[in-house]
Prior knowledge:
Layout: E1 9-16, H1 39-57, E2 63-72, H2 76-84, E3 94-98, H3 106-119, E4 124-129, H4 137-150, E5 153-158, E6 161-169, H5 173-177, H6 186-194, E7 198-202, H7 213-222
Parallel strand pairs: 1-2, 1-4, 2-3, 5-7
Antiparallel strand pairs: 4-6, 5-6
Amino acid sequence: xxxxxxxxxxxxxxxxxxxxxxxxxxxxxxxxxxxxxxxxxxxxxxxxxxxxxxxxxxxxxxxxxxxxxxxxxxxxxxxxxxxxxxxxxxxxxxxxxxxxxxxxxxxxxxxxxxxxxxxxxxxxxxxxxxxxxxxxxxxxxxxxxxxxxxxxxxxxxxxxxxxxxxxxxxxxxxxxxxxxxxxxxxxxxxxxxxxxxxxxxxxxxxxxxxxxxxxxxxxxxxxx
Length: 224
């Protein structure tokens, strides 16, 4: 009997955090959650925990995490300086992607994420938002598990709708590159949904994002 060959799938993970946070009246990415943790670092650390879990503890893992990164634009120098001064474990396998066109809207950051994934010849691109503060390593793990199982574009489902975080197939890259302005990736997810080629994972934590100081105060007061 011939040996069964498992095809390793290359996955790139990118956190989008290039916006100017005008409604926050400050650098939202660096908003303090605790004395030792800030908003963007929270997302990075949860994603890194997921990657480490797969690399160290999942037997016969057929996913190769080839790279992970954060896209920065507005306030890049200030944010990058904070990242560099953060604990080394926070930056494990995390690159910084410069988005000089951040003022053109969210689509410009998605384009940079796709370029990064294509550079690494990825089979899948996980896109997350830096301000979805409640997302946990378990949430990322559930998303990756379903992508691995179904081999379809896979996204979060919350508040009766689809959205990010999501994992896009390489087949989606051209469509993502066609997004413009402040349009996010939901258009591509809807296309997949209409074609019955989308896997949805219920992630209630994805409903919580931080746009204003009031949002942050509410979350800090009500988080588990």
